[in-house]
Structure prediction request, 180 residues.
Amino acid sequence: MSNWLTTKQMSERHDIQEAILKNWANLGYITSSRINDQLFLDDESLDAYLEAHKRLGLEAGYLSKIVEEKKLERDFIISKYDDLLYVLRTQTTCKPLYEIIIRELSALILHPVTRDIFYSISTGESVAKVADRHRITYGKTLQMYNSILKGLKLKKIYWLLIESVLSMLVFYPWQTIIRI
Prediction:
């Protein structure tokens, strides 16, 4: 016969944190039932779950450590991309500066169609729309754009320039970098 206990009772009985028990119940590792706002756990189900892991050499304390390690791992991954997320969130600040840079680079291109292709694609217009406007194929438009990048020697310089400007915005966002 099943013995149903609250998460608090189960936590005290097995010396496992309530949060971990709730997570296991949510993941379906142990049988649970909710009556009103109270979560009840099946003691036999928890015993079976713990027994299965003991056979694998894992004890309840070890499982708690694994959960904590995974939380730390999650936090580390999130913090690793925090700067990138900041740049993405401040995109509205960076976009006008990026457009100024692209406009200046476009001025170096003498042919008007080539200049428009470079400017339009670099500022986010779809390749298909640019190709249709100039009545050339999608593939030819991409080929021309890549050729323009090579011609301006931008494969490396372009990204270094953008990266340096973005890093200035990230580290000095309170200062005006370019005044028009």
About this structure: DSSP finds ten helices and three strands in the chain. The beta strands are 4-6, 32-35, 38-42. Residues 60-80 form the longest helix (21 residues).
